[in-house]
Design a protein that fits this description.
The complex is a heterodimer.
Chain A: E1 5-7, E2 10-13, E3 19-24, E4 31-37, E5 43-50, E6 53-56, E7 65-68, E8 75-79, E9 88-95, E10 102-103, E11 107-111
Parallel strand pairs in A: 2-11
Antiparallel strand pairs in A: 1-3, 3-8, 4-5, 4-9, 5-6, 7-8, 9-10, 9-11
Chain B: E1 4-6, E2 10-14, E3 19-21, E4 23-25, E5 32-38, E6 45-50, E7 56-58, E8 64-68, E9 73-78, E10 87-94, E11 104-105, E12 109-114
Parallel strand pairs in B: 2-12
Antiparallel strand pairs in B: 1-4, 3-9, 5-6, 5-10, 7-8, 8-9, 10-11, 10-12
The chains are: A mainly beta, B mainly beta.
């Protein structure tokens, strides 16, 4: 069974530009989560999809962040326009049940 | 708000030493508890989990954790560490609520094991 995949693995962009991160969950996993780790701090929850519906987006920092999950399969997280404080590692996780989440390798975003 | 506290940010041990990493959480209701590990260059992996039942949980690679409800703790232990245990360890808590269970993570503990 293939794991959670994320693309790209690294992204370096300038302040003000737009970046789109992609996450492909494990096949059959209805639950998809986005998390972020900024500058060695704790990993923080961003939002949760069940299939294509946003169930909890309480962790989204502001309206520069837009997440979608078209058709309940892969998900994208767009940052527009990017700011310096958006730098960090963005993790995606998926789960079949309500309990155990499987994480992807993360996307390291650097905003200069 | 829920929070998770990991007592040590950096731990340095020699091989064969015993390990205990502390984790405390703030939520008073029913929780699910996890330890994740991130080896250098790899993604987060589940080390062990507690949902209910026996509070002493055994995970992969010889790790175990004990849930002490009265202390709101879920400490990770290993009797004898190896160089390959060098990694960052994260304690996480989720509260099962209507099917939605975002994870609340601690800040992580970086473990370095020297040969």
């Amino acid at each position: 069974e293939a794991g959670v995949t994320q693309f790209p693995s690294h992204s370096v962009i300038e302040k003000g530009q737009t970046v789109t991160l992609r996450c492909d969950p494990i096949s059959g996993h209805d639950n998809l989560y986005w998390y972020r780790r900024v500058m060695g701090k704790e990993i923080k929850f961003l939002l949760h999809f069940v299939k294509e519906s946003k169930q909890d987006e309480s962790g989204m920092p502001n309206n520069r962040f837009l997440a979608e999950r078209t058709g309940g399969t892969y998900s994208t997280l767009k940052v527009q326009p990017a700011e310096l404080e958006d730098s960090g590692v963005y993790f995606c996780a998926s789960s079949r049940t309500d309990r155990e989440q499987y994480f992807g390798p993360g996307t390291r975003l650097t905003v200069t | 708000a829920q929070s998770v506290s990991q007592h040590n940010h950096h731990v340095i041990l020699s091989e064969a030493a015993s390990l205990e990493l502390g984790c405390n959480y703030s939520y008073g209701g029913t929780v699910n508890l996890f330890w994740y590990v991130q080896y250098p260059g790899q993604h987060l992996q589940l080390l062990l989990k507690y949902f209910s039942g026996d509070p002493l949980v055994k995970g992969i690679k010889g790790f175990e954790a004990e849930f002490i409800k009265s202390k709101f703790s879920f400490n990770l232990r290993k009797p004898s560490v190896q160089w390959s245990d060098t990694a960052e360890y994260f304690c996480a808590v989720s509260r099962f609520s209507g099917g939605y269970n975002k994870l609340i993570f601690g800040a992580g503990t970086r473990l370095a094991v020297h040969p």
